[in-house]
User: Fold this.
Amino acid sequence: MLEGKGVIEDTDMPVKMQIQAMRWASQALDVYDVLDCKSIAAHIKMEFDKQYGDGWQCVVGTKFGCFFTHTRGTFIYFTLETLNFLIFKGATSPP
Assistant:
């Protein structure tokens, strides 16, 4: 496991889920090269899908913009090492 701690920038996830998100991000960074953001994101997404059901999205990188609708209680944006992590479960917009 990485020694560095993550910094949560914004979230509406329950604390238990936040801890799990950072744990899976740390595990992914132990397995994949820090430049392999796609594999890191896929690893985290698959873990969330297994644990909390399908529909999770994960974006990993150093610079990105985004705009999305998410299911309440499923959003987290944090920094770990040199990367930013955005994880959320998608939702449909109200009609």
The radius of gyration is 13 Å. Residues 54 and 77 are 19 Å apart (CA to CA). The chain is about 35% helix and 25% strand.
